[in-house]
Amino acid sequence: MIRAMIAEDEPIARERMRRLRSQENGVEVIGECRDGEEAVTLVRQLKPDLLFLDVEMPGMDGFGVLKALGTDAHPVVIFTTAYNQYAVKAFDIHAVDYLLKPFDQMRFRRAIERARAQMANGKHEFAPRRTAMNEGEATRAVDRRVSRSGGRVVFLRTSEIDWIEAAGNYVRIHCHEQTHLVRETMGSMEAKVDAKRFLRIHRSIIVNVERIRELEPCGNGEYIVHLRGGKGLSLSRGYRGRLDAVLGIDANGTQH
User: Domains of the chain by range and CATH?
Assistant: First the structure.
């Protein structure tokens, strides 16, 4: 049985959450609260397994709740909000899901399933993210990215990404046969992806190292990076040292 808590300032929204929950087996609501300060108090008292956390609440918002909890024991978090602009930040701190209001029973069920899977795997990864929030540090190595287009919000695991390219004030994220557009700079994207998995090989290109099949020299110290799917990308001379370091290649071209 999952012991869940609802933090939501709107009574109608809380009632709807209870209705949706009633259609799901193995989930019990053990507490409700109307603002951020009350949420912090109840989480510490009740120690729920799962917290449905509204982003915008009086006094202290959902992110403030997580910051206030500090390094204390932390439930799995599913954010709920009517605004999609918080999605990137929510996944940067490893929320298990982000429910964009209004959501239906099926979407609610998928969120519950994700929470259950995370609990079963014992993957409670909130502590390092909370530390970064408390100290105001940049968040790195996010597990998920968010693409927003035409009112749709698409959640991407970084393991699905082949490469990323600059597109003005946006970046294009290439995932196999699909491309997603995200309003973000290459610099901020580079700071957020896992530096051991993703590497900038050009001022406008970041590549998933695990997708690299072959390096083809093309003169003047530059290379073509061939991905497993067949795509060829330019590796600028100034970025070669970074790739060699990641691949374990020394100055003589020998891999270790």
Answer: 2-135 (3.40.50.2300), 144-247 (2.40.50.1020)
